[in-house]
């Protein structure tokens, strides 16, 4: 099966398996419009991969052949209008057709895409591999590439439900990342991160790492689809893990309709949006995140209701006190939302249920913020790396060092407290510097 075919099947598979759930949500509608970016990279992947098939591992990294500006323009328009899985698949098929007749190499588009390397050949060895392509991964890539370490990044193919570029590809305006005084669309920002990584020589594979063996040097990695092989597809002396996390959702009736149209999982990211100004808002959860987010939202809301499923908060004493004493906050114990309702465009109210009596009632609410925990993308590393009780990678405080020398973790995968683009980028920088120093000490001849 050619890569082009297998890529398309994987998109379809992902869609069927529900991993593309964000696609069917109204990202392209008020008040957010960045949803199409969720799949932004995929048509290009198919395009470039279809344009050139590779006979062996050593030429697995190929250069995209897209030079026709009208094709690029059409691609962009196609992406912006794709709000359903079938539209994406249709777009991908159309691009495949275009790609099959494209022939010239582009000196400007330096994206690197790869076919799956044949099994049982020498694995491709790098000094350092980065797994993940959010702000943490790309910041690490820029630093490592500028240090001449020739980093190789696996940006993922809908890994953990996200397109290459990570969580920010699922949002619209990012207004709290320094350097963009007017704000910037999440997808556009991640395109810029990617360009910068490539500019300094990072090789990016649009593939997911499906298995790792971190027990001995060099570390062994298997690309998705090749996990069954005895031989790894790739090896590296150092690995930076930047696979991110995803917010837990409740899958309420109405959630798909009002996701990012009233329902959000990040108050700090979305709380300042005009639709929430002077309106009643609800936060669900009873932990520190819920407390922090609820207090944060009081700056914008007419009132904040915190929905706690038990008769007590899980939050620390200090956070709980802050919450309970705030004049603009009411904590509703033994309460969960069971349905989100609105006018079809924006959330207007919630159906609440008393968890003890099971009685239901309706409450006006223009916003519902989930603060019920996150799931770090660490299943790949279970049993090899030290994880905390919630599955986050444990790092030595003040560094990105894990329990395995040469393996570093950055971004949301190791941070359950801040979970911001800028903090992820910051730890990505730290991981690159930690990795560089470690390689210098242990593999000085390769420097
Ligand atoms: P992520 O962004 O999570 O990216 C990880 C990437 O790694 C993903 O692309 C994933 O597919 C890939 N990956 C995972 N596993 C593998 C694998 N096995 N192989 C290869 N690749 C893999 N923060 C802000 O500062 N400001 C905001 O305005 C803001 N808005 C947000 C809006 C939304 C809707 C969401 C969900 C988050 C928002 N955030 C915001 C938070 C911010 O997006 C995250 O803190 C940040 O993206 C985390 O970066 P990261 O590099 O750790 O990983
Ligand atoms: P937690 O897991 O601590 O809390 C999750 C909360 O959501 C709990 O109250 C839980 O209820 C509730 N919950 C979970 N699932 C559901 C559901 N389906 N329906 C309704 N409620 C649900 O997550 P946090 O994100 O709050 O915190 C994660 C970690 O980060 C903690 O260690 C926390 O201390 C830390 N943190 C610290 C901060 C700070 O110090 N400023 C800020 C933010 C986080 P129940 O209690 O019944 O299980």
TrEMBL record:
SUPFAM superfamilies reported for this sequence: FAD/NAD(P)-binding domain
Region described as Disordered: 50-84
Any one of the GO CC terms: cytoplasm
Keyword field: Disulfide bond, FAD, Flavoprotein, NADP, Oxidoreductase, Redox-active center
Catalytic activity: [thioredoxin]-dithiol + NADP(+) = [thioredoxin]-disulfide + NADPH + H(+)
Enzyme's top EC category: oxidoreductase
Cofactors (names): FAD
Biological process annotations from GO: removal of superoxide radicals
Domain spans labelled FAD/NAD(P)-binding: 127-428
Cofactor stoichiometry and binding remark: Binds 1 FAD per subunit.
GO molecular function: thioredoxin-disulfide reductase (NADPH) activity
EC number: 1.8.1.9
Low complexity bias locations: 58-69
Keyword Nucleotide-binding found: no
InterPro entries for this protein: FAD/NAD-bd_sf (IPR036188), FAD/NAD-binding_dom (IPR023753), Ferredoxin-NADP_redctase_2 (IPR050097), Pyr_nucl-diS_OxRdtase_2_AS (IPR008255), Thioredox_Rdtase (IPR005982)
NCBIfam families (alphabetical): TRX_reduct
Family: Belongs to the class-II pyridine nucleotide-disulfide oxidoreductase family.
Subunit record text: Homodimer.
The protein's name in its UniProt record: Thioredoxin reductase
Species whose genome carries this gene: Lobosporangium transversale
């Amino acid at each position: 099966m050619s890569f082009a075919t297998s890529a398309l099947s994987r998109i379809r598979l992902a869609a069927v398996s529900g991993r593309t759930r964000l696609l069917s949500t109204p990202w392209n509608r008020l008040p957010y419009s960045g949803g199409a970016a969720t799949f932004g990279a995929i048509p290009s992947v198919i395009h470039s991969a279809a344009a050139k098939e590779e006979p062996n591992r050593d030429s697995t990294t190929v250069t995209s052949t897209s030079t026709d500006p009208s094709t690029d323009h059409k691609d962009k328009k196609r992406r912006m209008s794709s709000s359903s899985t079938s539209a994406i698949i249709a777009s991908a098929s159309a691009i495949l057709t275009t790609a099959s007749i494209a022939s010239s190499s582009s000196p400007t588009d330096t994206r690197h895409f790869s076919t799956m390397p044949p099994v049982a050949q020498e694995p491709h060895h790098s000094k350092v591999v980065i797994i993940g392509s959010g702000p943490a991964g790309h910041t690490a890539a820029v630093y490592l590439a500028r240090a001449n370490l020739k980093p190789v990044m696996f940006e993922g193919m809908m890994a953990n439900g996200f397109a290459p570029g990570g969580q920010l590809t699922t949002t619209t305006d990012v207004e709290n990342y320094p350097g963009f005084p007017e704000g910037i669309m999440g997808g556009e920002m991640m395109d810029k991160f990617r360009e910068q990584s490539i500019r300094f020589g990072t090789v990016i594979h649009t593939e997911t790492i499906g298995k790792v063996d971190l027990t001995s040097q060099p570390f062994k990695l298997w690309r998705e689809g090749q996990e069954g092989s005895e031989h790894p597809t790739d090896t590296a002396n150092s690995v930076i893990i930047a696979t991110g996390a995803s917010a837990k959702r409740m899958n309420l009736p109405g959630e798909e309709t009002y996701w990012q149209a009233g329902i959000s999982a990040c108050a700090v990211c979305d709380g300042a949006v005009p639709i929430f100004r002077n309106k009643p808002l609800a936060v669900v959860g009873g932990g520190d995140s819920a407390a922090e987010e609820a207090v944060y939202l009081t700056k914008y809301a007419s009132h904040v209701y915190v929905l706690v499923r038990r008769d007590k908060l899980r939050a620390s004493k200090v956070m709980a006190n802050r919450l309970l004493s705030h004049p603009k906050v009411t904590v509703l114990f033994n309460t969960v939302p069971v349905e989100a309702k609105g006018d079809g465009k924006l959330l207007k109210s919630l159906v609440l249920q008393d968890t003890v009596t099971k009685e239901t009632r309706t409450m006006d609410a223009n916003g519902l913020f989930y603060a019920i925990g996150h799931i770090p993308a660490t299943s790949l590393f279970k049993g090899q790396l030290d994880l905390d009780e919630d599955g986050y990678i444990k790092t030595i405080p003040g560094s990105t060092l894990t329990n395995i020398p040469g393996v570093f973790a950055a971004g949301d995968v190791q941070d359950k407290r801040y979970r911001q683009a800028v903090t992820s980028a910051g730890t990505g920088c730290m991981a690159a510097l930690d990795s560089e120093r470690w390689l210098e000490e242990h593999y000085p001849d390769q420097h």
